[in-house]
Inverse folding.
Protein backbone atom coordinates (compact mmCIF):
# COMPACT_ATOMS: atom_id res chain seq x y z
CA UNK A 1 0.00 0.00 0.00
CA UNK A 2 1.35 3.41 -0.92
CA UNK A 3 0.93 6.71 0.78
CA UNK A 4 -1.60 8.95 -0.81
CA UNK A 5 -3.86 11.85 -0.08
CA UNK A 6 -7.63 11.41 -0.23
CA UNK A 7 -9.69 14.18 -1.83
CA UNK A 8 -12.10 15.78 0.67
CA UNK A 9 -15.01 15.97 -1.82
CA UNK A 10 -15.59 12.21 -2.00
CA UNK A 11 -16.05 10.89 1.50
CA UNK A 12 -19.81 10.33 1.56
CA UNK A 13 -20.11 7.36 -0.76
CA UNK A 14 -19.04 4.01 0.78
CA UNK A 15 -18.58 2.64 -2.77
CA UNK A 16 -15.19 4.31 -3.06
CA UNK A 17 -13.30 7.57 -3.07
CA UNK A 18 -10.86 9.75 -4.96
CA UNK A 19 -7.24 10.25 -4.01
CA UNK A 20 -4.12 11.95 -5.27
CA UNK A 21 -0.93 10.05 -5.84
CA UNK A 22 2.21 11.17 -7.65
CA UNK A 23 0.37 14.16 -9.09
CA UNK A 24 -2.45 12.06 -10.60
CA UNK A 25 -6.02 11.43 -9.49
CA UNK A 26 -7.20 7.88 -8.82
CA UNK A 27 -10.48 6.42 -7.66
CA UNK A 28 -10.63 3.46 -5.31
CA UNK A 29 -13.54 1.08 -5.91
CA UNK A 30 -14.39 -0.65 -2.64
CA UNK A 31 -15.34 -4.33 -2.34
CA UNK A 32 -18.84 -3.25 -1.26
CA UNK A 33 -19.37 -1.86 -4.79
CA UNK A 34 -17.89 -4.90 -6.61
CA UNK A 35 -21.20 -6.27 -7.94
CA UNK A 36 -22.35 -2.92 -9.34
CA UNK A 37 -18.93 -2.03 -10.78
CA UNK A 38 -18.65 -5.37 -12.57
CA UNK A 39 -22.19 -4.99 -13.89
CA UNK A 40 -21.45 -1.46 -15.14
CA UNK A 41 -18.56 -2.80 -17.19
CA UNK A 42 -20.00 -6.18 -18.27
CA UNK A 43 -23.47 -4.89 -19.21
CA UNK A 44 -21.89 -2.57 -21.78
CA UNK A 45 -23.28 0.55 -20.06
CA UNK A 46 -19.80 1.94 -19.34
CA UNK A 47 -18.77 1.55 -22.99
CA UNK A 48 -22.00 3.03 -24.29
CA UNK A 49 -21.77 6.08 -22.00
CA UNK A 50 -18.09 6.66 -22.75
CA UNK A 51 -18.68 6.35 -26.50
CA UNK A 52 -21.42 8.98 -26.35
CA UNK A 53 -19.24 11.35 -24.24
CA UNK A 54 -21.57 11.06 -21.26
CA UNK A 55 -19.21 9.39 -18.77
CA UNK A 56 -15.56 10.10 -18.05
CA UNK A 57 -13.34 7.31 -19.40
CA UNK A 58 -11.02 5.55 -16.97
CA UNK A 59 -8.27 2.95 -16.94
CA UNK A 60 -7.95 0.18 -14.38
CA UNK A 61 -4.54 0.33 -12.76
CA UNK A 62 -2.52 -1.89 -10.44
CA UNK A 63 -4.23 -2.67 -7.11
CA UNK A 64 -0.88 -1.76 -5.53
CA UNK A 65 -2.14 1.81 -5.68
CA UNK A 66 -4.86 0.86 -3.16
CA UNK A 67 -5.40 3.23 -0.31
CA UNK A 68 -7.07 0.76 2.08
CA UNK A 69 -7.84 -2.94 2.54
CA UNK A 70 -11.39 -2.41 1.31
CA UNK A 71 -10.15 -1.89 -2.24
CA UNK A 72 -11.57 -4.00 -5.04
CA UNK A 73 -10.13 -2.05 -7.97
CA UNK A 74 -8.24 1.17 -8.57
CA UNK A 75 -9.19 3.22 -11.58
CA UNK A 76 -7.55 6.27 -13.09
CA UNK A 77 -10.14 8.61 -14.61
CA UNK A 78 -9.20 11.00 -17.37
CA UNK A 79 -8.37 14.31 -15.66
CA UNK A 80 -10.70 17.33 -15.87
CA UNK A 81 -8.96 20.58 -16.81
CA UNK A 82 -10.89 22.80 -14.40
CA UNK A 83 -13.48 21.84 -11.80
CA UNK A 84 -16.44 24.20 -11.81
CA UNK A 85 -19.46 24.25 -9.51
CA UNK A 86 -23.18 24.72 -10.20
CA UNK A 87 -23.28 28.16 -8.55
CA UNK A 88 -20.77 29.27 -11.18
CA UNK A 89 -22.97 28.14 -14.07
CA UNK A 90 -25.41 30.23 -16.04
CA UNK A 91 -28.99 29.10 -16.72
CA UNK A 92 -28.29 27.12 -19.90
CA UNK A 93 -25.26 25.45 -18.34
CA UNK A 94 -27.33 24.19 -15.39
CA UNK A 95 -30.12 23.15 -17.77
CA UNK A 96 -27.70 21.19 -19.99
CA UNK A 97 -26.13 19.59 -16.93
CA UNK A 98 -29.62 18.48 -15.81
CA UNK A 99 -30.44 17.08 -19.24
CA UNK A 100 -27.09 15.25 -19.35
CA UNK A 101 -27.92 13.65 -15.99
CA UNK A 102 -31.35 12.54 -17.24
CA UNK A 103 -29.89 11.22 -20.52
CA UNK A 104 -27.48 9.11 -18.44
CA UNK A 105 -30.33 7.84 -16.26
CA UNK A 106 -32.39 6.84 -19.33
CA UNK A 107 -29.39 5.08 -20.88
CA UNK A 108 -28.62 3.35 -17.57
CA UNK A 109 -32.17 1.99 -17.42
CA UNK A 110 -31.78 0.47 -20.88
CA UNK A 111 -28.86 -1.53 -19.48
CA UNK A 112 -30.63 -2.48 -16.24
CA UNK A 113 -28.95 0.13 -14.03
CA UNK A 114 -29.97 3.40 -12.38
CA UNK A 115 -28.23 6.44 -10.88
CA UNK A 116 -28.06 6.23 -7.10
CA UNK A 117 -27.12 9.86 -6.70
CA UNK A 118 -27.76 12.92 -8.78
CA UNK A 119 -25.43 15.55 -7.40
CA UNK A 120 -24.81 18.48 -9.73
CA UNK A 121 -21.16 18.27 -8.59
CA UNK A 122 -20.89 14.97 -10.49
CA UNK A 123 -21.21 16.86 -13.74
CA UNK A 124 -18.20 18.66 -15.13
CA UNK A 125 -17.26 20.46 -18.29
CA UNK A 126 -14.92 18.71 -20.72
CA UNK A 127 -14.12 19.64 -24.32
CA UNK A 128 -17.15 21.91 -24.65
CA UNK A 129 -19.63 19.40 -23.19
CA UNK A 130 -20.93 18.34 -19.83
CA UNK A 131 -19.79 14.91 -18.70
CA UNK A 132 -20.57 12.70 -15.69
CA UNK A 133 -17.47 12.12 -13.57
CA UNK A 134 -18.58 9.70 -10.84
CA UNK A 135 -18.25 6.17 -12.20
CA UNK A 136 -19.47 4.76 -8.87
CA UNK A 137 -22.91 6.39 -9.00
CA UNK A 138 -24.59 3.48 -10.77
CA UNK A 139 -26.48 0.62 -9.16
CA UNK A 140 -28.46 -2.30 -10.53
CA UNK A 141 -32.07 -1.32 -11.17
CA UNK A 142 -34.39 -3.27 -8.90
CA UNK A 143 -37.90 -3.75 -10.23
CA UNK A 144 -40.41 -2.05 -7.94
CA UNK A 145 -37.93 0.28 -6.23
CA UNK A 146 -38.47 4.04 -6.72
CA UNK A 147 -35.68 6.30 -7.98
CA UNK A 148 -33.44 6.85 -4.98
CA UNK A 149 -31.85 9.97 -6.53
CA UNK A 150 -35.17 11.69 -7.29
CA UNK A 151 -35.01 14.06 -4.30
CA UNK A 152 -31.43 15.02 -5.12
CA UNK A 153 -32.26 15.69 -8.78
CA UNK A 154 -35.11 18.00 -7.74
CA UNK A 155 -32.90 19.85 -5.21
CA UNK A 156 -29.72 20.12 -7.31
CA UNK A 157 -31.23 20.82 -10.71
CA UNK A 158 -34.97 21.28 -10.93
CA UNK A 159 -35.54 23.71 -8.04
CA UNK A 160 -32.71 26.14 -8.96
CA UNK A 161 -33.65 26.03 -12.65
CA UNK A 162 -37.28 26.82 -11.86
CA UNK A 163 -36.30 29.62 -9.49
CA UNK A 164 -34.00 31.11 -12.13
CA UNK A 165 -36.63 30.80 -14.82
CA UNK A 166 -39.74 31.87 -12.88
CA UNK A 167 -38.37 34.20 -10.20
CA UNK A 168 -34.86 35.62 -10.53
CA UNK A 169 -31.76 34.48 -12.38
CA UNK A 170 -29.57 35.25 -9.35
CA UNK A 171 -31.27 32.57 -7.25
CA UNK A 172 -28.77 29.98 -8.51
CA UNK A 173 -26.58 31.46 -5.78
CA UNK A 174 -28.71 29.51 -3.26
CA UNK A 175 -26.62 26.50 -4.33
CA UNK A 176 -23.64 28.19 -2.72
CA UNK A 177 -25.50 28.21 0.60
CA UNK A 178 -27.18 24.80 0.34
CA UNK A 179 -24.52 22.28 -0.65
CA UNK A 180 -27.09 19.49 -1.15
CA UNK A 181 -29.31 21.57 -3.40
CA UNK A 182 -32.13 24.02 -2.76
CA UNK A 183 -34.54 22.70 -0.08
CA UNK A 184 -37.85 22.01 -1.79
CA UNK A 185 -39.96 23.82 0.82
CA UNK A 186 -37.86 26.93 0.20
CA UNK A 187 -38.23 26.56 -3.58
CA UNK A 188 -41.97 26.02 -3.15
CA UNK A 189 -42.39 29.20 -1.11
CA UNK A 190 -40.26 31.30 -3.48
CA UNK A 191 -41.91 30.17 -6.71
CA UNK A 192 -44.83 32.24 -8.00
CA UNK A 193 -48.33 30.99 -7.11
CA UNK A 194 -49.14 30.31 -10.78
CA UNK A 195 -46.61 27.46 -10.82
CA UNK A 196 -49.11 25.46 -8.73
CA UNK A 197 -51.31 25.27 -11.82
CA UNK A 198 -48.77 23.34 -13.85
CA UNK A 199 -49.18 19.68 -13.11
CA UNK A 200 -45.51 18.63 -13.35
CA UNK A 201 -44.39 21.60 -11.26
CA UNK A 202 -47.11 21.00 -8.71
CA UNK A 203 -45.97 17.39 -8.35
CA UNK A 204 -42.18 17.67 -8.43
CA UNK A 205 -41.87 20.75 -6.24
CA UNK A 206 -44.98 21.80 -4.32
CA UNK A 207 -46.45 18.37 -3.46
CA UNK A 208 -42.93 17.00 -3.11
CA UNK A 209 -42.16 19.63 -0.47
CA UNK A 210 -45.48 18.96 1.30
CA UNK A 211 -44.87 15.22 1.23
CA UNK A 212 -41.36 15.68 2.70
CA UNK A 213 -42.78 17.77 5.50
CA UNK A 214 -45.69 15.41 6.18
CA UNK A 215 -43.50 12.30 6.41
CA UNK A 216 -40.55 13.94 8.17
CA UNK A 217 -41.56 12.55 11.57
CA UNK A 218 -43.61 9.54 10.43
CA UNK A 219 -42.65 5.90 10.59
CA UNK A 220 -43.46 4.36 7.28
CA UNK A 221 -43.27 0.86 5.85
CA UNK A 222 -41.94 1.42 2.38
CA UNK A 223 -40.99 -2.17 1.64
CA UNK A 224 -44.51 -3.19 0.68
CA UNK A 225 -44.90 -0.29 -1.75
CA UNK A 226 -43.67 -0.93 -5.26
CA UNK A 227 -43.17 1.36 -8.21
CA UNK A 228 -43.65 -0.22 -11.62
CA UNK A 229 -41.09 0.21 -14.37
CA UNK A 230 -43.68 2.17 -16.36
CA UNK A 231 -44.12 4.62 -13.44
CA UNK A 232 -40.33 4.86 -13.05
CA UNK A 233 -39.86 5.66 -16.74
CA UNK A 234 -42.84 8.04 -16.69
CA UNK A 235 -41.31 9.98 -13.79
CA UNK A 236 -37.97 10.40 -15.60
CA UNK A 237 -39.76 11.34 -18.83
CA UNK A 238 -41.82 13.97 -17.02
CA UNK A 239 -38.65 15.52 -15.53
CA UNK A 240 -37.00 15.52 -18.95
CA UNK A 241 -40.01 17.19 -20.61
CA UNK A 242 -40.21 19.79 -17.84
CA UNK A 243 -36.50 20.69 -17.93
CA UNK A 244 -36.49 20.77 -21.75
CA UNK A 245 -39.31 23.30 -21.78
CA UNK A 246 -37.68 25.64 -19.26
CA UNK A 247 -36.23 28.80 -20.67
CA UNK A 248 -34.95 32.15 -19.57
CA UNK A 249 -35.01 35.26 -21.69
CA UNK A 250 -32.09 37.45 -20.62
CA UNK A 251 -32.98 41.09 -20.01
CA UNK A 252 -30.45 43.68 -21.06
CA UNK A 253 -28.11 44.59 -18.21
CA UNK A 254 -25.56 47.37 -17.82
CA UNK A 255 -22.89 44.97 -19.08
CA UNK A 256 -24.49 43.28 -22.09
CA UNK A 257 -24.05 46.17 -24.50
CA UNK A 258 -20.78 47.14 -22.87
CA UNK A 259 -18.73 47.08 -26.06
CA UNK A 260 -21.23 49.23 -27.96
CA UNK A 261 -21.32 51.66 -25.08
CA UNK A 262 -17.61 52.30 -24.51
CA UNK A 263 -15.38 55.01 -25.85
CA UNK A 264 -13.57 52.55 -28.10
CA UNK A 265 -13.44 53.36 -31.77
CA UNK A 266 -13.31 50.46 -34.21
CA UNK A 267 -9.60 51.20 -34.70
CA UNK A 268 -8.92 51.12 -30.97
CA UNK A 269 -10.82 47.86 -30.61
CA UNK A 270 -8.87 46.22 -33.44
CA UNK A 271 -5.60 47.55 -32.06
CA UNK A 272 -6.36 46.11 -28.63
CA UNK A 273 -7.12 42.72 -30.19
CA UNK A 274 -3.90 42.86 -32.18
CA UNK A 275 -1.84 43.72 -29.09
CA UNK A 276 -3.35 40.85 -27.10
CA UNK A 277 -2.52 38.48 -29.97
CA UNK A 278 1.08 39.71 -30.05
CA UNK A 279 1.46 39.41 -26.28
CA UNK A 280 0.03 35.87 -26.34
CA UNK A 281 2.48 34.90 -29.08
CA UNK A 282 5.33 36.08 -26.86
CA UNK A 283 4.35 34.15 -23.75
CA UNK A 284 2.51 31.18 -25.30
CA UNK A 285 0.52 30.15 -22.20
CA UNK A 286 -1.27 26.83 -21.69
CA UNK A 287 -4.16 28.31 -19.73
CA UNK A 288 -5.80 31.72 -19.65
CA UNK A 289 -8.28 33.17 -17.15
CA UNK A 290 -10.09 36.15 -18.57
CA UNK A 291 -11.41 38.08 -15.58
CA UNK A 292 -14.35 40.35 -16.39
CA UNK A 293 -14.63 38.70 -19.80
CA UNK A 294 -18.13 39.97 -20.60
CA UNK A 295 -19.33 37.89 -23.61
CA UNK A 296 -15.81 36.55 -24.22
CA UNK A 297 -14.60 38.51 -27.26
CA UNK A 298 -11.01 38.70 -25.98
CA UNK A 299 -11.17 35.23 -24.40
CA UNK A 300 -11.66 33.86 -27.91
CA UNK A 301 -8.32 35.28 -29.05
CA UNK A 302 -6.80 32.78 -26.62
CA UNK A 303 -9.25 29.88 -27.03
CA UNK A 304 -9.11 29.89 -30.84
CA UNK A 305 -5.34 29.44 -30.54
CA UNK A 306 -5.93 26.19 -28.64
CA UNK A 307 -5.32 27.71 -25.19
CA UNK A 308 -7.63 26.38 -22.43
CA UNK A 309 -9.52 29.52 -21.50
CA UNK A 310 -11.90 30.31 -18.68
CA UNK A 311 -14.07 33.30 -19.30
CA UNK A 312 -15.25 34.70 -15.95
CA UNK A 313 -17.85 37.40 -15.54
CA UNK A 314 -20.13 38.70 -12.81
CA UNK A 315 -23.11 39.22 -15.15
CA UNK A 316 -25.41 36.19 -15.70
CA UNK A 317 -26.57 37.64 -19.02
CA UNK A 318 -23.03 37.98 -20.36
CA UNK A 319 -22.14 34.43 -19.22
CA UNK A 320 -25.35 33.07 -20.78
CA UNK A 321 -24.59 34.78 -24.12
CA UNK A 322 -20.98 33.60 -23.99
CA UNK A 323 -22.05 29.99 -23.27
CA UNK A 324 -24.72 29.94 -26.00
CA UNK A 325 -22.09 31.11 -28.48
CA UNK A 326 -19.78 28.29 -27.35
CA UNK A 327 -22.58 25.76 -27.90
CA UNK A 328 -23.55 27.20 -31.29
CA UNK A 329 -19.97 27.20 -32.59
CA UNK A 330 -19.03 23.96 -30.79
CA UNK A 331 -16.04 25.64 -29.18
CA UNK A 332 -13.86 23.22 -27.24
CA UNK A 333 -11.36 25.41 -25.39
CA UNK A 334 -13.48 28.00 -23.64
CA UNK A 335 -15.50 27.71 -20.45
CA UNK A 336 -17.65 30.71 -19.45
CA UNK A 337 -18.30 30.92 -15.70
CA UNK A 338 -20.05 33.25 -13.28
CA UNK A 339 -17.76 34.92 -10.79
CA UNK A 340 -17.91 38.00 -8.63
CA UNK A 341 -14.25 38.87 -8.32
CA UNK A 342 -14.89 40.98 -5.23
CA UNK A 343 -16.51 37.98 -3.52
CA UNK A 344 -15.19 34.89 -5.31
CA UNK A 345 -16.44 31.31 -4.71
CA UNK A 346 -15.31 30.27 -1.21
CA UNK A 347 -14.45 26.78 0.01
CA UNK A 348 -17.61 25.20 1.41
CA UNK A 349 -18.94 22.00 2.96
CA UNK A 350 -17.58 19.80 5.73
CA UNK A 351 -14.53 21.40 7.34
CA UNK A 352 -14.71 23.94 4.52
CA UNK A 353 -13.04 21.38 2.32
CA UNK A 354 -15.71 19.67 0.25
CA UNK A 355 -15.86 22.26 -2.53
CA UNK A 356 -12.77 24.28 -3.27
CA UNK A 357 -12.51 28.04 -3.42
CA UNK A 358 -11.72 29.49 -6.81
CA UNK A 359 -8.11 30.16 -5.82
CA UNK A 360 -7.60 26.57 -4.67
CA UNK A 361 -8.68 25.36 -8.10
CA UNK A 362 -5.84 26.71 -10.00
CA UNK A 363 -3.20 29.09 -10.92
CA UNK A 364 -3.64 30.36 -14.45
CA UNK A 365 -0.65 30.64 -16.73
CA UNK A 366 -1.92 33.99 -17.91
CA UNK A 367 -4.63 36.28 -16.61
CA UNK A 368 -6.41 38.89 -18.74
CA UNK A 369 -7.56 41.93 -16.79
CA UNK A 370 -8.98 44.04 -19.58
CA UNK A 371 -11.06 47.11 -18.73
CA UNK A 372 -11.27 45.74 -15.21
CA UNK A 373 -8.92 47.61 -12.94
CA UNK A 374 -10.99 50.82 -12.74
CA UNK A 375 -14.02 48.79 -11.62
CA UNK A 376 -11.98 47.22 -8.83
CA UNK A 377 -10.19 50.40 -7.76
CA UNK A 378 -12.96 52.97 -8.15
CA UNK A 379 -16.30 51.10 -7.94
CA UNK A 380 -15.07 48.77 -5.19
CA UNK A 381 -12.62 51.04 -3.35
CA UNK A 382 -9.86 48.46 -3.62
CA UNK A 383 -6.41 49.99 -3.09
CA UNK A 384 -3.94 49.31 -5.93
CA UNK A 385 -1.56 47.45 -3.60
CA UNK A 386 -4.31 44.94 -2.78
CA UNK A 387 -5.20 44.45 -6.44
CA UNK A 388 -1.54 43.92 -7.39
CA UNK A 389 -1.09 41.45 -4.51
CA UNK A 390 -4.12 39.44 -5.69
CA UNK A 391 -2.91 39.20 -9.29
CA UNK A 392 0.51 38.25 -8.01
CA UNK A 393 -1.08 35.18 -6.38
CA UNK A 394 -3.12 33.85 -9.30
CA UNK A 395 -0.94 33.86 -12.42
CA UNK A 396 2.49 33.63 -13.97
CA UNK A 397 1.89 36.37 -16.47
CA UNK A 398 -0.60 39.16 -16.81
CA UNK A 399 -2.11 41.09 -19.70
CA UNK A 400 -3.62 44.09 -18.00
CA UNK A 401 -5.16 47.32 -19.21
CA UNK A 402 -4.67 50.53 -17.24
CA UNK A 403 -7.50 53.01 -17.64
CA UNK A 404 -6.48 56.49 -16.49
CA UNK A 405 -8.75 58.84 -14.59
CA UNK A 406 -9.20 61.04 -17.67
CA UNK A 407 -10.95 58.15 -19.49
CA UNK A 408 -14.67 58.80 -19.94
CA UNK A 409 -15.58 55.44 -18.34
CA UNK A 410 -13.68 56.37 -15.18
CA UNK A 411 -15.24 59.81 -15.26
CA UNK A 412 -18.64 58.13 -15.41
CA UNK A 413 -17.77 56.06 -12.32
CA UNK A 414 -16.58 59.21 -10.54
CA UNK A 415 -19.65 61.26 -11.44
CA UNK A 416 -21.67 59.97 -8.47
CA UNK A 417 -18.89 59.58 -5.92
CA UNK A 418 -16.30 61.76 -4.33
CA UNK A 419 -12.85 61.39 -5.88
CA UNK A 420 -10.94 59.93 -2.95
CA UNK A 421 -8.73 57.93 -5.27
CA UNK A 422 -5.68 60.17 -5.30
CA UNK A 423 -3.37 57.16 -5.65
CA UNK A 424 -5.06 55.97 -8.80
CA UNK A 425 -2.31 57.00 -11.23
CA UNK A 426 -0.29 55.21 -13.88
CA UNK A 427 2.88 55.69 -11.83
CA UNK A 428 1.34 54.18 -8.68
CA UNK A 429 -0.11 51.33 -10.77
CA UNK A 430 3.32 50.51 -12.20
CA UNK A 431 4.97 50.76 -8.77
CA UNK A 432 2.50 48.41 -7.07
CA UNK A 433 2.43 45.81 -9.86
CA UNK A 434 6.21 46.14 -10.19
CA UNK A 435 6.50 44.51 -6.73
CA UNK A 436 5.22 41.22 -8.16
CA UNK A 437 5.78 41.49 -11.92
CA UNK A 438 8.34 42.64 -14.44
CA UNK A 439 6.81 44.89 -17.04
CA UNK A 440 7.79 43.28 -20.34
CA UNK A 441 5.94 45.60 -22.65
CA UNK A 442 3.37 48.37 -22.61
CA UNK A 443 1.59 50.03 -25.49
CA UNK A 444 -0.93 52.86 -25.63
CA UNK A 445 -4.06 51.70 -27.41
CA UNK A 446 -4.77 53.76 -30.53
CA UNK A 447 -7.51 56.41 -30.30
CA UNK A 448 -7.75 56.03 -26.53
CA UNK A 449 -5.94 56.92 -23.32
CA UNK A 450 -5.71 53.33 -22.19
CA UNK A 451 -2.45 51.40 -21.89
CA UNK A 452 -2.07 47.65 -22.33
CA UNK A 453 0.68 45.95 -20.30
CA UNK A 454 2.34 42.57 -20.57
CA UNK A 455 3.76 41.59 -17.18
CA UNK A 456 5.70 38.48 -16.14
CA UNK A 457 5.81 37.29 -12.54
CA UNK A 458 9.10 37.93 -10.78
CA UNK B 1 -64.35 30.81 -21.16
CA UNK B 2 -63.36 29.19 -24.44
CA UNK B 3 -64.18 25.52 -24.95
CA UNK B 4 -60.49 24.64 -25.16
CA UNK B 5 -59.70 26.41 -21.90
CA UNK B 6 -62.68 24.78 -20.19
CA UNK B 7 -61.47 21.36 -21.32
CA UNK B 8 -57.96 22.11 -20.07
CA UNK B 9 -59.33 23.23 -16.72
CA UNK B 10 -61.50 20.11 -16.49
CA UNK B 11 -58.61 17.74 -17.30
CA UNK B 12 -56.42 19.51 -14.77
CA UNK B 13 -59.07 19.19 -12.07
CA UNK B 14 -59.54 15.50 -12.89
CA UNK B 15 -55.83 14.83 -12.46
CA UNK B 16 -55.83 16.74 -9.19
CA UNK B 17 -58.77 14.73 -7.84
CA UNK B 18 -57.10 11.45 -8.84
CA UNK B 19 -53.92 12.60 -7.13
CA UNK B 20 -55.69 13.47 -3.89
CA UNK B 21 -57.65 10.19 -3.92
CA UNK B 22 -54.43 8.23 -4.47
CA UNK B 23 -52.73 10.14 -1.69
CA UNK B 24 -55.46 9.20 0.77
CA UNK B 25 -55.73 5.62 -0.50
CA UNK B 26 -52.09 5.06 0.29
CA UNK B 27 -51.85 7.00 3.55
CA UNK B 28 -54.06 4.81 5.79
CA UNK B 29 -51.90 1.76 5.05
CA UNK B 30 -48.80 3.26 6.57
CA UNK B 31 -47.13 0.81 8.90
CA UNK B 32 -43.85 0.90 10.82
CA UNK B 33 -40.34 0.78 9.48
CA UNK B 34 -37.66 3.41 9.29
CA UNK B 35 -37.39 7.14 9.47
CA UNK B 36 -35.55 8.86 6.68
CA UNK B 37 -35.44 12.41 5.34
CA UNK B 38 -36.15 10.95 1.90
CA UNK B 39 -39.34 9.20 3.01
CA UNK B 40 -41.55 11.98 1.67
CA UNK B 41 -39.78 11.81 -1.70
CA UNK B 42 -40.14 8.04 -1.69
CA UNK B 43 -43.89 8.05 -1.00
CA UNK B 44 -44.55 10.91 -3.41
CA UNK B 45 -42.86 8.99 -6.23
CA UNK B 46 -45.16 6.01 -5.66
CA UNK B 47 -48.19 8.26 -6.06
CA UNK B 48 -47.22 10.60 -8.86
CA UNK B 49 -45.38 7.77 -10.61
CA UNK B 50 -48.72 6.10 -11.36
CA UNK B 51 -49.97 9.21 -13.13
CA UNK B 52 -46.71 9.96 -14.93
CA UNK B 53 -46.55 6.30 -15.97
CA UNK B 54 -50.05 6.51 -17.46
CA UNK B 55 -49.24 9.78 -19.22
CA UNK B 56 -46.05 8.22 -20.57
CA UNK B 57 -47.95 5.20 -21.87
CA UNK B 58 -50.45 7.51 -23.63
CA UNK B 59 -47.56 9.56 -25.04
CA UNK B 60 -45.88 6.43 -26.41
CA UNK B 61 -49.18 5.19 -27.84
CA UNK B 62 -49.88 8.53 -29.57
CA UNK B 63 -46.31 8.56 -30.85
CA UNK B 64 -46.82 5.14 -32.41
CA UNK B 65 -50.08 6.25 -34.04
CA UNK B 66 -48.31 9.33 -35.41
CA UNK B 67 -45.57 7.19 -36.95
CA UNK B 68 -48.18 4.76 -38.31
CA UNK B 69 -50.17 7.58 -39.95
CA UNK B 70 -47.00 9.19 -41.28
CA UNK B 71 -46.00 5.89 -42.88
CA UNK B 72 -49.42 5.53 -44.50
CA UNK B 73 -49.34 9.07 -45.91
CA UNK B 74 -45.74 8.83 -47.08
CA UNK B 75 -46.61 5.51 -48.78
CA UNK B 76 -49.60 7.15 -50.47
CA UNK B 77 -47.42 10.01 -51.69
CA UNK B 78 -44.87 7.56 -53.04
CA UNK B 79 -47.63 5.64 -54.85
CA UNK B 80 -48.95 8.88 -56.35
CA UNK B 81 -45.48 9.82 -57.57
Amino acid sequence: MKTNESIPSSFRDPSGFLFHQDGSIYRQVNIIYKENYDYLIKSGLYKSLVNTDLLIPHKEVDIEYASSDEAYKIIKPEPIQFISYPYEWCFSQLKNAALTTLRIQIKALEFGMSLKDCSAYNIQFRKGKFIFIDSLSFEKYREGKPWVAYRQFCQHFLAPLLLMSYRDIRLNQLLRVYIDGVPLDLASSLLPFRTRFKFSLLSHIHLHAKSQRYFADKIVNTSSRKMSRLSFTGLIDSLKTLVNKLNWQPQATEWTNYYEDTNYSEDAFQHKKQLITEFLDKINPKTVWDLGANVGIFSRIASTRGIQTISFDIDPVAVEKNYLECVENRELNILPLLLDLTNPSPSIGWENQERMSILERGLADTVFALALIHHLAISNNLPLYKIANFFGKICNSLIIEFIPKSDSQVQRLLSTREDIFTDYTQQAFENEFGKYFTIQNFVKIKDSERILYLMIKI
Amino acid sequence: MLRKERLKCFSYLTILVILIVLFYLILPHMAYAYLDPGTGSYILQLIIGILFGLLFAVKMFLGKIKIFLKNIFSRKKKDEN
